[in-house]
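Progress note, sequence design subtask.
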C-alpha cells in the first residue's frame, strides 16, 4: 500500500527545515526517502548559509511563492554539485497546498531555487481531470480539501511540506508586486535552520 507522507507529516521522522523570514517562520518537513538528492542539496545549501538574505523573487497570490536565488533575479543559483541535477518524482508526493518543490527551466534542470505552493482551491474541472488520469483517490480528496497545483505534478520535484507557518506563506503571497511578479519591497529569508 502506497503511503502519502504529506498527509501524515506527524507520523514521519525528521529532518525539518525552518525558514526564518521577515514575515515569520515557515517550518517544513523534508522527505529524503522520496527525494534523496533534492533534500541533500537543500540541506547542504541551507547549512552553508547559501539561502541567507535570499528574497522571494516571484510571488503570485493563489499560486506560489518562489525563492532560493542569491542573485535575486530568478535567473541565478546553483546546486551543491555546481551543475543542474535530475528530477526526483515520486508517486507518494504531490503539489498540494504547502508543498515545497524545486523550480526549474525544464526537465532535469534543478539548482537552488524552490517554491512553496500557496493555492487554496483546486478547480472542479481539474479534479475531474485527475480522476480521468487515475490519480490516487487520497490525493484527489486532498487537492479538493486543501488546494494545490496538480498541473505541476511530475514536472517539479516535491521534497517537503509546510507543517506550520502557512499563515506566513499566505502573508508573503499577498504583498504588492510589480508587473514581473516581484515584490515591490523585498521579503527576505534571514536563514534556514535544519533540525531532526
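Output:
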Amino acid at each position: 500500500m502506497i503511503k502519502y507522507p504529506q498527509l501524515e507529516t506527524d507520523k514521519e521522522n525528521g529532518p525539518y527545515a525552518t525558514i526564518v523570514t521577515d514575515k515569520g517562520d515557515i517550518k517544513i518537513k523534508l522527505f529524503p526517502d522520496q527525494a534523496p538528492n533534492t533534500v541533500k542539496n537543500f540541506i547542504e545549501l541551507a547549512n552553508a548559509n547559501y539561502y541567507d538574505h535570499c528574497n522571494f523573487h516571484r510571488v503570485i497570490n493563489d499560486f506560489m511563492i518562489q525563492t532560493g536565488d542569491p542573485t535575486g533575479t530568478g535567473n541565478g543559483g546553483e546546486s551543491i554539485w555546481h551543475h543542474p541535477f535530475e528530477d526526483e518524482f515520486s508517486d507518494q508526493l504531490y503539489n498540494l497546498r504547502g508543498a515545497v518543490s524545486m523550480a526549474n527551466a525544464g526537465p532535469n534542470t534543478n539548482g537552488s531555487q524552490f517554491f512553496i505552493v500557496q493555492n487554496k482551491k483546486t478547480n472542479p474541472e481539474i479534479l475531474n481531470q485527475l480522476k480521468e488520469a487515475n490519480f490516487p483517490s487520497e490525493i484527489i480528496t486532498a487537492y479538493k480539501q486543501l488546494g494545490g497545483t496538480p498541473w505541476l505534478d511530475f514536472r517539479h520535484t516535491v521534497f517537503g511540506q509546510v507543517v506550520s507557518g502557512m499563515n506566513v506563506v499566505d502573508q508573503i503571497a499577498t504583498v504588492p508586486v510589480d508587473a514581473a511578479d516581484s515584490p515591490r519591497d523585498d521579503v527576505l529569508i534571514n536563514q534556514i535552520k535544519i533540525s531532526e
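The chain has a mean pLDDT of 96. Work on this subtask will continue into the next period as scheduled.
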